[in-house]
Design goal:
about 160 residues; mainly alpha; elongated
Length: about 160
């Protein structure tokens, strides 16, 4: 069974049809999706800018991270759940939309960046550089990759919605 055939099957399920044809469900899910993106990506941007030493220089990087991570995680969880529901409601349109493919690609890149950063010595030894005027190059690079990836996710995500 091909990916397109899976999308066709999913599109015809009662669950998909009920979301797509509901007067209330689709707009509520889409609004919650945008809220999740706003919370998650906005706070990720703050943590990235701190990691690069550009803002909140009087706060330790670990304090900033520890305060933001629960909110970033909640926003991300909301974004993933609602994004999955939006995909389920129109899987064929998503499959055929090049912007959606780029969105998934850059979500994947952002996720790999997070995994690499959190498993690296840069994160594990943050206490050695968290007050530094000039954070390590690897921390800055992870911040830039994150900012660019999430920026592209947001741009192509909105493009996805307008290309339907």
């Amino acid at each position: 069974m091909s990916l397109f055939e899976i999308c066709q099957w999913l599109q015809e399920t009662p669950f998909s049809v009920s979301i797509r044809e509901s007067i209330i469900a689709f707009p509520v899910i889409e609004g919650l999706h945008l809220l999740g993106i706003s919370v998650s990506a906005g706070l990720i941007a703050i943590s990235d800018l701190r990691m690069m030493g550009l803002i909140l220089k009087k706060e330790s990087a670990s304090d900033v991270f520890h305060q933001l991570i629960p909110w970033i995680s909640a926003g991300f969880a909301l974004m993933i759940v609602t994004g999955s529901l939006l995909f389920v409601s129109e899987p064929i349109k998503c499959y055929e939309n090049i912007s959606f493919r780029f969105k998934v690609l850059f979500l994947f890149i952002a996720g790999i960046n997070i995994l690499i950063f959190h498993s690296s010595k840069i994160y594990r030894h943050m206490n050695e550089w968290e007050w530094a005027e000039d954070p390590p190059r690897a921390a800055k690079m992870a911040g830039w990759i994150s900012l660019i990836s999430w920026g592209i996710v947001i741009i192509v995500g909105r493009t996805t919605a307008y290309n339907f």
